[in-house]
């Protein structure tokens, strides 16, 4: 996949206009800021995928992780939901977000798009564009270019008015126009290149100066990226995927900290100068913002998880990597670069600056073998698929395969069970019939063009005359929407759904029709709009065919008269709000489509999640290959909650069981360290002046444990210094392991134990490589 990802073109708008506090330029090595070359680490945090209350904490954690830049997309359909009507309030307040980045001393990169993809519904484009006559998105098309330029100008003007560009004293050093256009350019044929050139010139016209640089997106840009499209431009990695987005029906995509670190180190070793982690914090796709089949939980495996908690060891290992690379900064940005062969699959990337500074990256590309290489008359052991960083060309400061930072375990604890009949009330959604609908057509209308993105739902209703006495028929419906529920004479008869890979699905079920008039009502549902590909404006969804098969005939309903209702009645009445909920009648709990209850906010400050394991749309019944739902817990930011009496309204399409719902809190409950005596000391220790081998515990590998704020180490679940593996004591084990660790850690939030035999009284097995493994509970 990376072979074409490297062809994506990203236009980087450098903030160089005017006279200000920071002049940003570039050359073939890196960005240059006020005359200084920079190696920059960046992380994507999208402001609407979190809350303003969380922005300071997330940015602070990113800074603590060694990042220099926060990158965000800009969401057109969020900011201009209707033509000329702009919204920059609340979670949409991009100015407040960027000012928070500035307040914490970091730089910003804004990717204006305005097509962004980003697993965001309709790729960030507002659906009202679809109704503009003659429009073709992202091509040399005047209607599209007119509206695109208006929006881009609006954002750039807003940034300038708030003095947010670096040249004005603000934090924005980079912007982007368009996104991943190389993926679709060929589809537009002669209309593609002119559009791309127009976009560049349009950005230039906004007086921000636009160099076009072919950047890399993917996981292995150190291996796949051929370099910039000019020797005078720096190598930039705009999307280094820390995991991958997840769709309903798929298992989580896990990417190890070691793999990420290897490819970042390789990219930097090959003269890369800017790496952005996509995502550093994924957050949540609130409301109806997710693209087709995308979970609300976005990049939960990122260094900061969906709730903003540290995902360890990923966050910690990358922090160490950033620190090690920055120890090499002088030779990296101004030294002479050479490459040396160290073996069949091994090489060294060396940077020398005069006779003083030297830095080396020793690479082992062998995926199976640990090898010993000779570099400058010294021996270095390189684990499989790893890179050792030598900031002085002598001493190893970091190896990508040796994780010294802790691991942690995230767990959910039930705060409140909503498990009694008395807590719930129900309201039945009205099933419309043909006669209820004023919108009618003698054809099956396309779903998205009918709903105009005002609702996920579209009712299709028709009538059928049966001249016979009660008889059994077969209802056959094909759909290219995401989910379909069928009702005959108000009674549910069946449902089906598609998948991310299966776009069209068929429902076939037996039905009984009464003599006389019968009503067929079909509920078509979307779970987000498509977000990628050429000619997005031509995409279609909805019900394609409807047939009723009898014993002697098949009736095709495609050309029958159909009535349409956009959305559900409960949506129109806003029964999910306090005021709207009072407009309908609620009954005691039974078997219905909509349920409501009240709950209080959980005590404390830990993140809150709604556990819907027993209920939900088809995403709970839509199981992964392992037979479990893709997502059961849904993030509820504390800023959404009142202290008491929070209204919860559940729309259930599949007769789920609301008594199994609970309000949970999410926290880090366990921390674990697993470090051997062959691991390296923490990079902060390496920075001390005396780097020679000695027996001082401060400069040895360590197990470092840290519970989250408000928690401390209450119990040591396992401890062994010896040859332990997989939480089992081996043949070599120090019997002082547990009391030594308990003395050092119990009751503390943070503790550190060097991997050193003298710390445990004696060497339990001289000459045998040893490991310290500690597993602790945080309470």
From TrEMBL:
Its EC number is 3.2.1.23. It comes from the Eukaryota. InterPro entries: Galactose-bd-like_sf, GH, GHD, Gly_Hdrlase_35_cat, Glyco_hydro_35_CS, Glycoside_Hdrlase_35, Lectin_gal-bd_dom, Lectin_gal-bd_sf. It catalyses: Hydrolysis of terminal non-reducing beta-D-galactose residues in beta-D-galactosides. Residues 1-15 form the signal peptide. GO terms for biological process: carbohydrate metabolic process. It is an enzyme of class 3 (hydrolase). Residues 700-779 form the SUEL-type lectin domain. One of its GO terms (cellular component) is apoplast. Belongs to the glycosyl hydrolase 35 family. This is Beta-galactosidase. It comes from Hibiscus trionum.
């Amino acid at each position: 996949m990376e072979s074409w990802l490297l062809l994506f073109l990203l236009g980087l708008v450098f903030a160089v206009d005017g006279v200000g506090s920071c002049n940003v330029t570039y050359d073939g090595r890196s960005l240059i800021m006020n005359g200084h070359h920079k190696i920059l680490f960046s992380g994507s945090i999208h402001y609407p995928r979190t809350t303003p209350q969380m922005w300071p904490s997330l940015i602070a954690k990113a800074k603590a992780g060694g990042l220099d830049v926060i990158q965000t997309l800009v969401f057109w359909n969020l900011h201009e939901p209707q033509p000329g009507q702009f919204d920059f309030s609340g979670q949409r307040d991009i100015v407040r977000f960027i000012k928070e980045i500035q307040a914490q001393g970091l730089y910003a990169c804004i990717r204006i798009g305005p097509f962004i993809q980003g697993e965001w519904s309709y790729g960030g484009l507002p659906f009202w564009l679809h109704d503009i006559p003659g429009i073709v998105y992202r091509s040399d098309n005047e209607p599209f270019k007119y509206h695109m330029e208006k929006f881009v100008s609006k954002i750039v003007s807003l940034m300038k008015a708030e003095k947010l560009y670096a040249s004005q004293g603000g934090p924005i050093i980079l912007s982007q126009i368009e996104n991943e256009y190389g993926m679709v350019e060929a589809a537009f044929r002669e209309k593609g290149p002119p559009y791309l050139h127009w976009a560049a010139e349009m950005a230039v016209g906004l007086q921000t100066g636009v160099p076009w640089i072919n950047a890399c997106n993917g996981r292995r840009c150190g291996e796949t990226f051929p370099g910039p499209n000019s020797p005078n431009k720096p190598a930039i990695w705009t999307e280094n995927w820390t995991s991958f987005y997840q769709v309903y029906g798929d298992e989580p995509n896990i990417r190890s900290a070691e793999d990420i670190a290897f490819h970042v180190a390789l990219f930097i070793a090959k003269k890369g100068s800017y790496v952005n982690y996509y995502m550093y914090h994924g957050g949540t796709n609130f409301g109806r913002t997710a693209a087709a089949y995308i979970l609300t939980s976005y990049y939960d495996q990122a260094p900061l998880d969906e709730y903003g908690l540290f995902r360890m060891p990923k966050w910690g290992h990358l922090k160490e990597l950033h620190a090690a690379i920055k120890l090499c900064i002088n030779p990296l940005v101004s030294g002479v670069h050479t490459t040396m062969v160290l073996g069949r699959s091994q090489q060294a990337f060396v940077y020398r600056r005069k006779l003083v500074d030297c830095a080396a990256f020793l690479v082992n590309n062998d995926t199976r073998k640990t090898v010993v290489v000779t570099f400058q008359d010294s021996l270095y052991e390189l684990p499989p698929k790893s890179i050792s960083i030598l900031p002085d060309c002598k001493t190893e400061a970091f190896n990508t395969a040796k994780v010294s930072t802790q691991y942690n375990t995230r767990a959910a604890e039930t705060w409140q069970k909503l498990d009694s009949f008395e807590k719930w009330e129900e309201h039945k959604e009205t099933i419309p019939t043909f006669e209820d609908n004023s919108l009618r057509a003698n054809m099956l209308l396309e779903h998205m063009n009918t709903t105009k993105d005002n609702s996920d739902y579209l009712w299709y209703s028709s009538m059928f005359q049966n001249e016979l006495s009660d008889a059994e028929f077969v209802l056959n419906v094909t759909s290219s929407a995401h989910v379909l529920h069928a009702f005959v004479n108000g009674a549910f008869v069946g449902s089906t759904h598609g998948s991310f890979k299966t776009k069209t699905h068929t429902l076939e079920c037996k039905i009984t029709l009464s003599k006389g008039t019968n009503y067929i009502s079909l509920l078509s549902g979307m779970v987000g709009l498509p977000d990628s590909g050429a000619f997005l404006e031509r995409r279609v969804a909805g019900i394609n065919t409807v047939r009723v098969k009898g014993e002697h005939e098949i009736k095709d309903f495609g050309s029958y008269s159909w009535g349409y209702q956009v959305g559900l009645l409960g949506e129109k009445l806003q029964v999910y709000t306090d005021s709207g909920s009072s407009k309908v009648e609620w009954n005691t709990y039974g078997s219905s489509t909509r349920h409501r209850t009240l709950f209080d906010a959980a005590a404390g400050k830990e993140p809150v999640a709604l556990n819907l394991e027993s209920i939900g749309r088809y995403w709970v019944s839509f199981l992964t290959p392992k037979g479990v739902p893709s997502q059961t817990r849904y993030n509820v930011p504390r800023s959404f909650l009142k202290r008491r009496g929070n209204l919860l309204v559940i729309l259930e399409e599949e007769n789920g069981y609301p008594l199994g719902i609970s309000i949970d809190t999410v926290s880090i409950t366990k921390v674990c360290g697993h470090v051997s005596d062959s691991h390296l000391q923490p990079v902060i220790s390496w920075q001390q002046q005396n780097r020679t081998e000695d027996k001082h515990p401060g400069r040895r590998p360590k197990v470092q444990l840290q519970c989250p704020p408000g928690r401390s180490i209450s119990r040591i679940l396992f401890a062994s210094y010896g040859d332990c593996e997989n939480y089992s004591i081996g043949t070599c084990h120090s019997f002082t392991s547990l009391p030594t660790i308990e003395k050092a850690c119990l009751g503390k939030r943070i503790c550190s134990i060097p991997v050193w035999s003298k710390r445990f009284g004696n060497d339990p097995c001289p000459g045998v490589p040893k490991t310290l493994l500690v597993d602790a509970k945080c309470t």
